[in-house]
Amino acid sequence: MPIRFRSEKLQARCATPDGLQTTIRSVEVRYDPLLGTTSRIAEGVKLQTRDAAALERFQLQDQSCPFCAERIGRVTPCIDPKVSDEPRIRAGETMLFPNLVPYSQHAAVAVFTSRHWLSVSEFSSKLIIDNLTACIRYIRAVYASDSRARYCAWNVNYLFPSGGSLSHPHSQVFLDPVPTTMMRFQFEAAERYWQENGTSFWEDLVTTERERNERFVWDLGSTAWATAFAPIGFNEVRAVVRGRQTLLQLDDADIAAVAAGVSRVLLWYGALGYDSFNVSLFSGPLDGAAWFRVNLVMVTRTAMIPYYRSDSMHLERLHWEAAVDCAPEGIAVKLRDQSDLRSYALTSGHPKTPWQ
């Protein structure tokens, strides 16, 4: 069955304040051609763009930043010697080390540069190549020591609106025996497509998008770039690495093509007035899956403003996977502690509860 780009156009109506006229706004519901999930293109929805003054304090050197050159070697953890002889993996300006917040069994942080601040236009191809190279070296080392860790991705949360907790530019490696929700959805849907059609969904998608020339953007080496038919974020751009099933199959030319595309898209994001973004580069299972292709998704987030951090990062926005700080059982214990609720009710002016 050929790839279908299915959508439904709807109209929302309301009366003007004086009741004399009708205002019509459009909303288009689009179905993802692989997953079947829906997204909506709604007239009037937009993100806040850059405020230069709001960025000034974040651009200054931060004496407490653990990723800056004078502290990174002292305060960041080292890789388990069972995984790598290198305590920290270096590639060009990138330094990689384990993540103290383990979103996966094997989680790593890869700091792009010793510079504390980068504008989106300063994410050069060279910086991205170094970062991806270090991350793939780490993935290779981990997988050699733990073959259960089959599922991986390269991710970036840049600045607080993207869910990042530090402004110093860095990426994160996800490497785990359990795929994220989006990984699982992609794997299962792509396998069904393969079984039904005998071809790779992503190879067919590239061919179809290039022929239609509605959303296709570039061919860069082994990568093909297009905007998403059913986007899951603002200004979403996607890429496919043709002929590559896993991140471990990427050669230097593939990495350079991915990096060039990401850098180009970030230049465009900056020109639009956005400074915060998310990126995820998805791999197929590391033991191989003929139907899968390495693919990338990147989106803009709302502009940086003081004292603001989103609680939604690459996991929530691009992997559809929640990450919270406390187990539900622990929350239940706290909620059952009625003394906390009594204290709140007595001090907040709320009506008395039955136990008071």
Keywords:
356 residues; alpha+beta; HIT family, subunit A; 2 domains; ten-stranded antiparallel beta sheet; three-stranded antiparallel beta sheet; 13 strands; globular
What does this structure look like?
The protein is of the alpha+beta class and 356 residues long. The chain contains nine helices and 13 strands. The strands form two sheets. Strands 4-5-6-8-7-12-13-11-10-9 form a ten-stranded antiparallel beta sheet, sandwiched between helices. A three-stranded antiparallel beta sheet has the order 1-2-3, with no helix packed on it. It starts with 6 loop residues before the first strand and ends in an 8-residue tail after the last helix. 37% of the residues are buried.
| Backbone structural class | alpha+beta
Overall morphology: globular
The oligomeric state is: single chain
Average per-residue pLDDT, rounded, comes to 88
Task: Enumerate how many helices there are, as a single number.
Answer: 9
By CATH's scheme, which homologous superfamily of the largest domain applies? HIT-like
Determine and state the CATH class of the largest domain: Alpha Beta
Number of strands: 13
Named at the architecture level, the CATH assignment of the largest domain is: 2-Layer Sandwich
CATH-defined fold name of the largest domain: HIT family, subunit A
Overall tally of domains? 2
**β-strand amount:** 15-25%
The whole-angstrom Rg is 23 Å
Main sheet summary: 10 strands, antiparallel
Give, in spatial order, the strands making up the sheet with the most strands. 4-5-6-8-7-12-13-11-10-9
